[in-house]
């Protein structure tokens, strides 16, 4: 649709995100095991996806800066999100396992990121309206860095917190 989309298609991503967040809110108080040996899988998958995207269309100098800025901002938000999650240890000895519960604040942080993205990025950015493609590529590079930073630093902080809890026999953090 010319003009950046209208009607349902313009709001479909928001409806999808609202549905996912409602699903996550439903299970908010339920603790689930934090499988420490598997924490590296998601960063590896996201890293591979970002590498494939960058190999297909390598960034220029400003693109690398946008990627780095996105990585830094995403890393800060991911680390903060992981600090807001509630961790505790169930069981003792070899039966001990680290459990994680999503914090309402951590979930609201993610919602805030999506809202800010929607507010900050123009809705009608199309090539035929005079916006050069370089702006779209810079935004794409920044978002790739943001996603990578958020996932990597989130998992890294969770791993460090859980490892410290197990090593120091802390049962709630």
UniProtKB/TrEMBL annotation:
<feature type="transmembrane region" description="Helical">
    <location>
        <begin position="136"/>
        <end position="158"/>
    </location>
</feature>
<dbReference type="Pfam" id="PF07301">
    <property type="entry name" value="DUF1453"/>
</dbReference>
<dbReference type="InterPro" id="IPR058247">
    <property type="entry name" value="DUF1453"/>
</dbReference>
<keyword id="KW-0472">Membrane</keyword>
<feature type="transmembrane region" description="Helical">
    <location>
        <begin position="6"/>
        <end position="25"/>
    </location>
</feature>
<feature type="transmembrane region" description="Helical">
    <location>
        <begin position="63"/>
        <end position="79"/>
    </location>
</feature>
<keyword id="KW-1133">Transmembrane helix</keyword>
<feature type="transmembrane region" description="Helical">
    <location>
        <begin position="99"/>
        <end position="116"/>
    </location>
</feature>
<protein>
    <recommendedName>
        <fullName>DUF1453 domain-containing protein</fullName>
    </recommendedName>
</protein>
<keyword id="KW-0812">Transmembrane</keyword>
<feature type="transmembrane region" description="Helical">
    <location>
        <begin position="37"/>
        <end position="57"/>
    </location>
</feature>
């Amino acid at each position: 649709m010319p003009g950046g989309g209208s009607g349902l298609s313009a709001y479909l991503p928001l409806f999808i995100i609202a549905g996912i967040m409602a699903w996550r809110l439903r299970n908010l108080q339920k603790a689930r095991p934090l499988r420490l040996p598997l924490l590296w899988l998601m960063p590896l998958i996201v890293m591979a996806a970002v590498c494939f995207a960058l190999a297909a269309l390598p960034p220029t100098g400003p693109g690398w800066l946008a990627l780095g800025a996105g990585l830094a901002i995403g890393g800060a938000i991911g680390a903060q999100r992981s600090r807001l999650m509630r961790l505790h240890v169930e069981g003792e000895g070899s039966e001990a396992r680290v459990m994680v519960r999503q914090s309402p604040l951590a979930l609201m942080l993610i919602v805030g990121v999506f809202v800010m993205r929607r507010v900050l990025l123009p809705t009608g950015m199309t090539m035929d309206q005079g916006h050069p493609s370089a702006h779209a590529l810079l935004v794409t590079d920044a978002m790739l860095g943001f996603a990578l930073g958020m996932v990597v630093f989130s998992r890294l902080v969770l791993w460090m917190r859980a490892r410290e809890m197990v090593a120091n026999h802390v049962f709630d953090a």
